[in-house]
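Morning!

This is the sequence you dropped in the shared folder:
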Amino acid sequence: MASLLIAEAVQTLASGPQVHANTPVVQLIESALQRGEGRLAANGAFVAYTGSRTGRSPKDKFTVDDSTTHTLVDWGKVNQPFSPERFEALLERVVEHMRERDLFVQDLYSGADPAYRLPIRIITEYAWHALFVRQLFVRPEPSELAAHVPEFTVIAAPEFEAVPERDGTRTGAFILADFTRKIILIGGTKYAGEMKKSIFGVMNFLVPQRDVLPMHCSANVGADGVTALFFGLSGTGKTTLSADPARRLIGDDEHGWSATGIFNFEGGCYAKCADLSEEKEPQIFRAIRFGSVLENVVLDPATREPDYTNIQLTENTRVAYPVGYIENAVVPGIGGHPSNVMFLAADAFGVLPPIARLTPDQAMYHFLSGYTAKLAGTEAGMGSDPVPEFSAAFGAPFLPLAPLVYAEMLGKRLKQHQAACWLVNTGWSGGKFGVGKRMSIRVSRALVSAALNGHLEGVEFVKEPAFGLHIPVTCPDVPPEVLNPRNAWADKDAYDRQAADLAARFEANFQQFDAPEAVRAAGPGKR
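The structure's back. Tokens below.
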């Protein structure tokens, strides 16, 4: 199929008689219910179930290798190449599949800042998928729709299964990015997060060329108007700590840092629901209402009340809602240059301090490392010990370019705006998982608030020996014995052995980066 015919075929998907274009939220919910795609919970949220795939399928993600991408993309396990010819053939099959179905089309933007926003079009065969993207991305004003011309199109066909032997995919599921045709092709998976993260990958490819740093982080702003960023992998508290009743939320997951400040790539939030409660996370809990989309959350059969403690389907239960559902959110999601940047790690080894102030070189080191720890039992085949997870820039699965591209941009921004950088351990203290205890949300909030409000500026700091991190001796509302991780362990020798082991794992992971010597020297075991 020639490129012109491909464009025409995709256009027919968005304009045929069976197409429901830019349908508002209420009608999408009605359609989804009528089509049997899910049901309403007692709190009014729409609940959908995604079958066997309850999370992203990173091994099924490919990028078309052609003249647009060949010299720019960091090819490897994350960015797997796919031939243009096979993409074209698979696209033709998906188009034929979609032509036989009712389709739901949403014209939206990625990027709250009009100077940098990307017009996108999402074509789906599920009404609830259209509801998901409408709530998650930035909606055009009604007056803007006529002039909306999509630069990228996402075609989501969950009912279409690839044939690996024929199509060149790994399994029946596929997530394909073609930066020349500007099409994202998704099939064989009902998990809505694939649409969200595919566009994040597109932004990570495009916006660095416009001197914008794309970031897998949340952002909020204080009463003083000063912005803070929160980087962290899943489960580290990125969404929870940024949804602070004392601060205004800009966004919970994806942002750009431009020459003028911070802006949200999205218009909504995508929060984890496991063990959610109003007491621990009041803003997120109250945001789940009519118009929100719950994924794989078990409902009480009699009352339809969500049971957030029930993770029998998956630990990755999720909710999507517009950022405006968060009380006192910043809409549109634009803020000034940050004064504080937080790197969150759920260290299940109990080694890292609850909070540490990083030097600029340490900030680069820990940004490239992107550390957290997986817990025993969360994945099939894991043993009883935690497993370290390193993800460059706290978002390796979404980085088309080499990690050093993003790290150098971050270093430049931190230096330009003299932003303080902090490493915050939201994981374990007093021992590793199974021995120590996890930091309470109350303690983590107190530490973060102290850093953001300047309460640590006049406090004495000491250097701990394992990682060379500078840690405060005191912090308001935090027991002093918690601040030094070694002091929190009853068995000091056991701490030293665990710290040495984790430091060695950091160093082994960092060997992949051709970083400047000053950054290498900022890692553990260098002093």
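Headline: The domain at 337-520 is CATH 3.90.228.20 (Phosphoenolpyruvate Carboxykinase; domain 3).

More detail when I'm at my desk.
O.
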